[in-house]
Queue: 3 jobs
Job 1
Amino acid sequence: MPRMLDVSDDVRAEIGDEEADRLLAGDHAPGSYDCTSCRTPGDTDREHTSTVLFVGDETAVLAFAHAGCLPSQVVRVSDEQLQGAVRQAGALQEPDRAPTVPGPSAGDSGVRKAAPEQAVLGVTSGLVLISGELHAAIVVEPTSAIARPGSTGPGDEFLPLLVEQGFQLVTDLNQAPPVLHGWSVLLAMGQLHAVLQPGAGGGAPVAWWQAHRPLQATDGWRTAANKNQQVLMFAAPVGLIGRQPREDLLRGALDRAAANGVLVGAALPLAGI
């Protein structure tokens, strides 16, 4: 019996027409699964389901999500992230044809240095109360000033660069920032792995920030993220927020940065396995 699966053109291009047709025919698709986003059960026989392909440097893993939670898509991650997720999840599978690709509580934090020339970004996760509702949030702060690519000057261009990507200046935390489409937050098995940005030329999403080690998320943080199907991302220049040990202190630091005009933010949809 054919499954109620959606296989996007990007996923089909990675796994090949033969494997995609087998999935659609129900040969390799599971009847039941845990949604890669909300982690609740799904059934490919009874409800529309998206295929989500996570592609590492050498391997790929196919996961499934409620169509209402995530569209069918390709997400590029590191092999380390992929292997960690596979060790924890039994509902994921490697496609027969692997794709060919180029060789929270406040106080939880992770850093990533993508290349020797790039700055290190610190990320703190926590819950932020806005208009009486708790929102899952991450706060990004570099450990040093961020120069514009190709620039040799001493200025810090971190916020202007983010504004150019669509993030908006936050002057008041009494309302949530708008959704920034094309960007997303990658959750894998309840852990925070990466912030994804659109690929060049409209291609598959790529990691803008990637945790050196996945960040644990509290039950409350995951509940808020899944309820809203998004995570609020706030960013400030070096030294403005710090690693606050409590969520009330984190909120206070955010309020001060907003009042001083040095905070940007956006609501990022969830992606995940």
Note: The chain has two domains: 5-88, 109-272.
Job 2
Amino acid sequence: MRKIIHIDMDAFYASVEQRDFPQYRGRPVIVGGSPEGRGVVATASYEARRYGVHSAMSAGKARQLCPHAIFVYPRFDVYKAISLEIREIFRRYTDLIEPLSLDEAYLDVTTDKLQIGSAMEIAEQIRAFIFSELHLTASAGVSVNKFVAKIASGMQKPNGITFIGPSKIETFMEKLPVEKFFGVGEVTARKMKSMHLHTGADLKRLSEVELIRIFGKMGSFYYRIVRGIDERPVQPFRERKSLGVEDTFPEDLTQLAQMDAELYTISQKLIERLQRSNAKGRTLTLKIKYNDFSQITRSQSFAIPLVDVSTIYTIALQLLEKTEPESKPIRLLGISISNFEDVSSDPLQADKSGQLWLFS
């Protein structure tokens, strides 16, 4: 049985800004975007979150919710340097570290270097070192697999720690809202709720065959995870080849206007991921899956990196328009960026092709 820790820094970018600039402390800080409403929020301090501001939100919406917020331009070089210092703290205990982004990672401490034995004690020590050496706070989740540890780390934020032991996992999963499940974004959550699937217990009533029929290959994952089964190992850093976002729609898209709107939403989510990972790529790939499950991709490369929402959205829309988009109903759209010029952080877990997708 594994001992897994998920460490998640608390409002990382904003906390760094508040640490380094005393005038920001206790005030709502938004990293990313601009006061004029351009761009996307990378992260927000907890003071700003009280007003409903969150990452991936447009700066314009954030300004409406919190007019007195301080907008700060991201300092990714600084965030990366601090992230590497945090990584060195992790390495005091284990080399089995799987970074998810600059501000979070999984650790497998089944066998730890210092022979402490207790994952909870290790998590507490890591949090204490992060605070004493870097003057930042982190939350931690401890369990026997990655999924539960990640959920646990968010239960007592900020600056908290939660342990969910083997005997409590299945009961915990049954009570978990479906939107908290890995791979369940807004669209999938709406689909589930329309089918009266609101919690893990509701999902548990369906057979694996039924879940696969409704949700595709993720159905098999839902079947296992709601029973507390997650055998994914902690995988140390592997070089990223691409980073992308894709959405599967509850109803097939048939009109270009619908596709246009979805591509813009996907572009916003993708640029937020690129900013968080400080990744800059020169090739954009559009992925289209039709209602008959046939699939095509279209790519275009450029001399300079694609670094803003409007550019990514415009290129994706141009590629879409070349495919006669209204000729066949569309089930899924995705955009990925590759051919990286400067990768400044480690990836989320990639699939066998090396491609990273954020499912919604």
Note: The chain is about 40% helix and 25% strand.
Job 3
Amino acid sequence: MLQLKRLLEIFIVSTKLGLTSFGGPIAHLGYFREEYVVRRKWLEDKSYADLVALCQFLPGPASSQVGIGIGAARAGVAGGLVSFIGFTLPSVLALIIFVYIAQTYQLMDSGFIQGLKVTAVAVVAHAILGMAGNLAPDMKRKTIVLIALLITLLIPHVLAQVSAILLAGAAGWFLFKGKQTDSAGDIHIPLSKRFGTICLTIFFSLLIGLPLLSGASSATWISIFDSFYRSGSLVFGGGHVVLPLLEREFVPTGLISAESFLAGYGAAQAVPGPLFTFAAYIGADMGGWLGGLGATAAIFLPAILLIFGTLPFWMDLQKNQHMKAAVLGINAAVVGILISAFYQPIWTTSILTVYDFSLAALLFFMLAYWKLPPWVVVVTGAVVGQLLAVL
């Protein structure tokens, strides 16, 4: 009964986040922290940062993997899957519906889209301030924050985040190796190493076997599944990176027109949740709602297998004193990465006028000082953005 109650709670909370988390993966992490760490206290800031750092290492949608990890910590494998479904389903359904209306109505230039982008500025700024105070309290870690910020901001490459985290881990290893600390979070993941090994084996077996099976079979669905699975397996840097991969897989082959692809891309910017759900739009365009659900399963399957496969080993490694020292540096690097993403692309694509900045300030106060629920902040941002466009 307790397990069922927890699963229902996870589903309700993750679905609420799936309905209100606009602004891309970094903004999602801000919403997650506000809901799971600050409000519900399901885990502490350090545990949350540890989980974020792990998911930055892995290919796939980092915010979705963080959500899966939190669900797994709360209620095992079932909790992770329920958390994934709740966070993902709203945008999947919205994008499947957009298949039928995106080319009929011109929605992408509406003011509410700009309002939602400004909302992301307030959400990420709030997350950065909260995490920086806890994870970079001394000058050494503040310096690591700065270095990670510079690396990820000045080197426009998808592996820059991974490199920054590796360097920060090495710096933490040397700078804090003599420091007795309990800095690694006390998050407990009820997954066995045997289960983790099975998940990693399945991941690599599909990654290697699906292209071979696709080449040997004439079944179109196998080739399509392989395209989505490989796209989800080999992407570092978030949902925006997967879009050109999907374009190369499906537009030149004629499975989806360039016009429809671009319309779906615009729709994906307008809905909350992970950008990887753009696969639902492509799948629905090719094969109706069943195609949309199948494409979603295919592109997210690698992320699910990887997070379930690595969590048992990651949490065990953090018990090591040397690893705890490295995690101090890694956690500081996560803050620097968040600041970098806050500037580019969130700030540069959202704050275009003095009115945008004013709205961002209002939304930040609503979230940080007036302690209003995130969904109220999101709705306010959308409504005011539309009003500003009309005026």
Note: Residues 62-101 form the longest helix (40 residues).
